[in-house]
Design a protein that fits this description.
By secondary structure, this protein is of the alpha/beta class. It has a single domain, classed as Dehydroquinase, class II (Rossmann fold). 37% of the residues lie in helices and 17% in strands. It is built from five helices and five strands, in the order E-H-H-E-H-E-H-E-E-H. A five-stranded parallel sheet has the order 2-1-3-4-5, with helices on both faces. The relative contact order is 0.19. It binds 1,3,4-trihydroxy-5-OXO-cyclohexanecarboxylic acid.
């Protein structure tokens, strides 16, 4: 018997997230991006999902990835581009893949400029403020969403 096709999840980390562990640890935590990616891979395997992770500091590279990669579900922490990027918003509108916006910090509890997201209303939902758990909750939500879709 043929085994069922595995769903593909793409996780995108935006600018400066490669600095996790060193960058403002009081806000973002002491763990590294590679700690998050490793844990996501373990969780994805348990749920029989294929997971690809990608970090870039460049808006153009993020747009390329969103619009050209092959995946069923997108989890994205657009980082600073959350608050500024019409280009990333437009690429999400263009590809129409189910998407969850993730933030380590609670963006509604910080500076005024962080309270505006150009991404939230084109995503299924937002998970913000749980540190690295935000990503793991997003993966759980993506997994359930894809199961319910079938
Ligand atoms: C962030 C919040 C953004 O405002 C900030 O620019 C980041 C990280 C978060 O994960 O909390 O770089 O997206």
């Amino acid at each position: 018997m043929k085994s069922a096709k595995k769903n593909k999840i793409l996780v995108i980390h935006g600018p400066n997230l490669h600095l996790l562990g060193k960058r403002e640890p009081d806000i973002y935590g002491k763990f590294t991006l590679s700690d998050i990616d490793k844990e996501l891979k373990v969780l994805a395997k348990k749920d029989n999902l294929l997971l690809q992770t990608f970090q870039s500091n460049s808006e153009g590279d993020i747009v390329e990835k969103i619009t050209k990669a092959s995946y069923d579900f997108l989890i994205i922490n657009p980082a600073a581009y959350t608050h500024t990027s019409v280009a990333i918003r437009d690429s999400l509108l263009g590809i129409k893949k189910p998407t969850i916006e993730v933030h380590l910090s609670n963006i509604y509890k910080r500076e005024e400029f962080r309270k505006t997201s150009l991404i939230s209303d084109v995503a299924i939902g937002v998970i913000s403020g749980f540190g690295k758990l935000s990503y793991f909750l997003a993966l759980q939500a993506a997994s359930r969403y894809l199961l319910n879709e079938k």
